UniProtKB/TrEMBL annotation:
InterPro entries: Polysacch_pyruvyl_Trfase
Protein name (database record): Polysaccharide pyruvyl transferase
The organism's taxonomic lineage, starting at the top: Bacteria, Bacillati, Actinomycetota, Actinomycetes, Geodermatophilales
Domain of life of the source: Bacteria
GO molecular-function terms, A-Z: transferase activity
PANTHER family to which the protein is assigned, alphabetical: COLANIC ACID BIOSYNTHESIS PROTEIN WCAK (PTHR36836:SF1)
The entry's keywords: Transferase
Length: 383
């Protein structure tokens, strides 16, 4: 950060959840850091995440002046209980009086002098993690001070009626709110706020490993976290899918987005399909997702659905928690994904049989994300 007496650089403050790790959260924040590296390379950048150490190791080279902290997340954790209203009150109080959270005063000074605060997309603001609603209180408070704020690619489901009232009150103060699915737009009563997931700000072709994709005819991505379906049931469903594919088992891959959580089904199936290959999360980040035309996929995870559908693979998204994953997967179906969505054995057919329709949708969402970014961060060099 700049020394005293030196002309101050703009400070861009991002809030997200990278570093846990989770493939989707990493590529979302990486995409925005790369955008800033191209358009605002001389600005200071602070990323506020619950996992600053992991995020530094993963993303520390994505912008020449990026730092990672957990300041605003600490405020959410310091709230007196799990009630989102109390979390919002405490975060607001601590931003107004740093003595309410004295341990985090150095980080709060960075928040105070931020030239913009951008809450990066994802599905982390809801009743599954109620304290996190304090993040929206932080943006609302900084907006009252005149700091430019933006929420992009957010997913707010599931929330109770009580939480929805708080959500609408906080979001109602913010000038730039962009969500990724229709359910979130309806919750905040801003029908024009829906564009799509923040991953669209990235060149999705850069997320693909087409060379390795040629090695696989079928790909599984099955989780064992935040799911309302037992791992044994998911393993049996995956085995039925493998039999339906009728492909060489050696040409089947299991890809991991969250360490351990996405290996449980693979370990259950290994005894009967030992030829399958397992690709860890670091391989997806370092090399890309092995997706391409002609493949069949079965995925509970949202971002593999998005990336593989973009690549031309066909598949089925298993909705393992309808109040959380349902809006996410169905948002892609509505946008033209060629994938079906399956919930409790009931299948929602694809929104389109033409993969180009989904790609055209992505181009339009990318345009909107860039328009928002330029409004928050400026037009960038050469504009």
């Amino acid at each position: 950060m700049p020394d005293q007496g030196v002309q101050r650089r703009p400070l861009r403050y991002l809030v997200g959840v990278p570093g846990a790790p989770n493939y989707g959260d990493e590529v979302l924040v990486r995409g925005w850091l790369r955008w800033l590296a191209s358009n605002n390379p001389d600005d200071d950048v602070v990323v506020d995440t619950p996992h600053p150490g992991g995020a530094q190791a993963l993303l520390g080279e994505e912008h020449p002046r990026v730092k990672f902290v957990d300041t605003l997340w600490r405020l959410c954790w310091e709230a007196p209980n799990e009630d989102p209203w109390d979390a919002a009150r405490f975060v607001t109080s601590a931003l107004r009086d740093h003595g309410q959270a004295p341990n985090w005063i150095p980080g709060l000074r960075w928040v105070d002098r931020a030239d913009s605060i951008h809450l990066v997309g994802g599905g982390f603001l809801n009743d599954i993690w109620p304290r996190r609603l304090g993040m929206l209180a932080a943006l609302a408070e900084m907006n009252r001070r005149g700091t430019p704020t933006a929420v992009t690619g957010a997913g707010f489901a599931p929330v109770s009626a009580r939480t929805a009232d708080l959500l609408r009150a906080l979001v109602g103060e913010l000038p730039v709110v962009d969500v990724r699915d229709e359910a979130s737009a309806e919750l905040i009563r801003r029908p024009g706020a829906r564009s799509g997931d923040d991953l669209w700000v990235t060149d999705l072709d850069s997320l693909l490993d087409r060379e390795r994709a040629a090695e696989f005819d079928g790909v599984l991505c099955i989780q064992d976290d935040i799911a309302e379906v037992a791992a044994d049931d998911l393993a049996r469903r995956a085995l039925r899918e493998i039999h339906e594919w009728q492909v060489d088992p050696a040409r089947i891959a299991v890809v991991e987005c969250v360490p351990r959580a996405d290996r449980v089904v693979f370990d259950r199936l290994w005894a009967v399909v030992p030829q399958m290959q397992f690709l860890g999360w670091t391989e997806l980040l370092d090399r890309g997702v092995p997706a391409g035309p002609g493949q069949r996929w079965l995925s509970t995870r949202f971002h593999p659905h998005l990336v593989a559908a973009w690549a031309g693979a066909r598949g089925t998204a298993l909705d393992v928690r309808p109040d959380y994953y349902g809006p996410k997967h169905l948002s892609l179906t509505a946008a033209g994904s060629t994938w079906a969505v399956e919930r409790d054995g009931v299948v929602v057919e694809p929104g389109s049989a033409d993969p180009d329709a989904f790609r055209l949708h992505g181009v339009e969402v990318h345009r909107r994300k860039v328009e928002i970014a330029r409004g928050v961060y400026g037009p960038g060099p050469g504009a």
